[in-house]
From TrEMBL:
Protein's UniProt name: NAD(P)-binding oxidoreductase
Domain NAD(P)-binding: 8-190
InterPro entries on file: NAD(P)-bd_dom, NAD(P)-bd_dom_sf
Highest taxon of the lineage: Bacteria
Pfam family, one: NAD_binding_10
Organism listed in the record: Paraglaciecola aquimarina
């Protein structure tokens, strides 16, 4: 049986992805710090597991063969939480995946993680954390999909994508709902090989991106 663990399932993208998967009758384990944040979701396909990403969360991996790491420390936290969640927890998530023979690991990274030094001073700790977490996954031996979304918006989903960076910075955006749709596609369509994909709203179907 295919079961996907969503790490960070109570976040904006994580919760939307959880909902989409349940609508498709897919088996989901949702790892959250507080179960009450998913109290509005009710499905026999859903298992909610509590865990603290700054501590041991390996128990959430039981019976899961796909992993989505969509957790983040959030913009209101400092560099200490960025290191603990966006870097250290992401690295441990990959290490646990190796131990549990996970078949596919999907990491939600960030645009700019390839060159964190060119980011703004305020963004550099976050981008460095994402960069190092990505490198750890790349070197893990796991089959991976690293998704690097551009600036996130709360607009309605467009179902239109591109993996080419727009020339204009203001066009380098993507809705959170579209990111969730892209993640659902990655889960449902196993990759032929590991890949890193930058993601923006554009004019292509998701099937043309992955």
């Amino acid at each position: 049986m295919q079961r996907t663990l969503i790490i960070g399932a109570s976040g904006q993208i994580g919760k939307k992805l959880t909902q989409l998967m349940l609508e498709k009758n897919q088996q989901v384990t949702a790892l959250v710090r507080d179960k009450s944040k998913l109290s509005d979701l009710d499905s026999d396909k859903l298992s909610i597991v509590e865990g603290d990403l700054s501590k041991d969360f390996e128990h959430a991996y039981k019976n899961c063969n796909k992993i989505v790491f969509v957790a983040g420390s959030g913009g209101h936290t400092g560099a200490d939480q960025t290191i603990l969640i966006d870097l250290w927890a992401a690295c441990r998530a990959a290490d646990y995946a190796i131990k549990h023979d996970v078949k596919h690991f999907i990491m939600v990274s960030s645009i700019g993680a390839d060159q964190p030094s060119i980011g703004s001073n305020s963004m550099q700790p976050y981008l460095v954390a994402k960069h190092m977490a990505d490198e750890h996954l790349i070197n893990s031996g796991l089959c991976y999909s690293i998704i690097r979304p551009s600036t996130l918006t709360n607009e309605a989903a467009t179902a239109k994508f591109t993996s080419q960076r727009p020339e204009q910075k203001e066009q380098a955006i993507i809705t959170r709902d579209d990111v969730a749709e892209a993640l659902l596609f990655c889960i449902s369509t196993p990759p032929k090989k590991s890949a890193i994909t930058e993601l923006f709203n554009g004019n292509k179907k998701i099937t043309e991106i992955f």
